[in-house]
Amino acid sequence: MKTEHSTLDSAKDFPLPESFPNKITVEQNCDISQELHDFTIEVANANHIFWVKEICDVTLTSAIARGTGISGRSAESLELKMKNGEAIIAFASDGTWAGFSFISSWENGKYVSNSGLIVAPQFRHTGLAKRIKRKIFELSRVKYPEASIFSLTTGLAVMKMNHELGFEPVTYSELTNDEVFWESCKSCINCPILKSKERKNCLCTAMLYNPKNA
User: How many other C-beta atoms lie within 10 A of the C-beta of residue 28?
Assistant: First the structure.
């Protein structure tokens, strides 16, 4: 398999926890019947806007199939993420879109959220999700080196990936207070639960990476 491509560059390196690169080899040890894929994983830009509709459609379909909640992500917002270099996009060797994730900053860069991790159905169970998660984490550290990075998820696989990167479970009180962030939860089917709990908890597990503890 070829080495994945990366367009991240910075004057400062932010090494990942040692356990993550070692565990990422799990994709090479998957079931023998699985096809091994070569992916290009890079920082998204304006040239990738063409793929926004497919990303939105697959994200919504996936959430419905799992019966889980998802916060609203408009096509316009994802386009802006791409233009601002605040997203990671992946392609298969034949140019087919394969995966995506994006970051958002809150409270003037005090917090950064890693969100919207999605892999196209035909490329699931190849280890791609873990590789995108690694890249979006690297991008967050490069663009916002002092920020606390957080993730809200109901997915066990994402929780495990977060843990391997140094995230720890926290209460919602340790996340951003930015009302714009919490407004995005209104489109989630679990929002009534969040409101009934006075925004103290919900079905999503909150996880936080604090650079001061790294």
Answer: 9
